């Protein structure tokens, strides 16, 4: 399920594609936005499935090792800690995830199992994995810690996996960090009694979030001239033409939220776009954007343009 920040990033990506395109079709861009958001949900399901695929690969590896003619004592009596990992078992048995994978026909790790092998071989080289396997009866906390390290230190940073996902679907290139963060947060919150929170097939939290994504895209595009004029004159050392494209789009999105989203708190808008600028623009962009947005808030407030509704919105 997407957060508002995920939605803002998706709208930012769609706006960037729109402004870079020779064919600026709003309806077409709106369809692309919905498609791109749905693709992100596919990636999250796929990355969860990858951990199950790694466990299944480990099981097959164990069985082959036991059948060796000159198997060592360790190979004859291997640890089943990873195979019996309770957290991965919960992911594997999650009905929402299983149904989603089946309906979407996301069976990549069966078709391209060499990437599972690459990741498993890397996992076997980790000292902490060996330590985990030596535990006689790992508890849920042990299993959880191991899975989080597996994801953060083996899966997420793997360059070959990143290249594979890029080749599969171009929109996943920017989605990967967001999905990784989302999955690690989910794993950290997981308890033995909260397996239902593993995967939610809903893309949006509610209809309001879905409408917000569309309206943010449309408000920026349909009011482009007005938003551009608001930026003009606020950057004495920079002509509008010299502002980085991403920075200008982020500024327009922030201004649009000030003017056209009365229930959106001003501080939330500023904080969210500062964090997004740190992720997607230059190192100094956040300071630049913060200065402009703060200046505009004061100006809009003095002019009575900030029609915010509710407490804590200014």
Automatic annotation (TrEMBL):
GO cellular component: cytosol
InterPro entries cross-referenced by the UniProt entry: NusB_fam, NusB_RsmB_TIM44
Lineage top rank: taxon: Bacteria
Annotated Pfam families: NusB
Residue span, NusB/RsmB/TIM44 domain: 204-298
A biological-process GO annotation: DNA-templated transcription termination
Gene Ontology molecular function terms on file: RNA binding
PANTHER family, A to Z: ANTITERMINATION NUSB DOMAIN-CONTAINING PROTEIN, N UTILIZATION SUBSTANCE PROTEIN B-RELATED
Protein name: Transcription antitermination factor NusB
């Amino acid at each position: 399920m997407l957060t508002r920040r995920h939605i803002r990033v998706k709208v930012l990506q769609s706006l960037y594609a729109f402004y870079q395109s020779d064919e600026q079709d709003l309806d077409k861009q709106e369809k692309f936005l919905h498609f791109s958001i749905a693709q992100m949900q596919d990636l999250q399901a796929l990355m969860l499935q990858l951990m199950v695929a790694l466990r299944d690969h480990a099981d097959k590896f164990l069985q082959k090792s036991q059948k060796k003619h000159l198997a060592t004592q360790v190979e004859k009596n291997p640890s089943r800690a990873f195979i019996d990992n309770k957290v991965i078992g919960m992911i594997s048995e999650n009905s929402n995830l299983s149904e989603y994978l089946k309906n979407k026909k996301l069976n990549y790790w069966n078709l391209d199992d060499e990437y599972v092998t690459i990741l498993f071989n890397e996992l076997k080289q980790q000292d902490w994995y060996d330590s985990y396997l030596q535990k006689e009866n790992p508890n849920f906390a042990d299993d959880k810690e191991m899975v989080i390290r597996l994801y953060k230190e083996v899966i997420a940073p793997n360059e070959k996996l990143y290249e594979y996902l890029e080749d599969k679907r171009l929109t996943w290139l920017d989605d990967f960090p967001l999905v990784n963060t989302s999955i690690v947060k989910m794993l950290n919150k997981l308890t033995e009694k909260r397996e239902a929170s593993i995967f939610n097939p809903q893309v949006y939290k509610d209809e309001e979030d879905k409408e917000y994504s569309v309206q943010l895209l449309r408000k920026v595009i349909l009011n482009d001239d007005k938003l551009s004029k608001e930026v003009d004159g606020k950057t004495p050392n920079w002509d509008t033409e010299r502002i980085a494209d991403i920075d200008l789009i982020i500024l327009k999105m922030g201004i649009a939220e000030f003017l056209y989203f009365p229930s959106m708190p001003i501080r939330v808008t500023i904080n969210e776009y500062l964090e997004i600028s740190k992720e997607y623009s230059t190192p100094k962009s956040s300071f630049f954007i913060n200065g402009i947005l703060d200046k505009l808030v004061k100006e809009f407030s003095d002019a009575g343009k900030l029609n915010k509704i509710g407490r804590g919105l200014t």
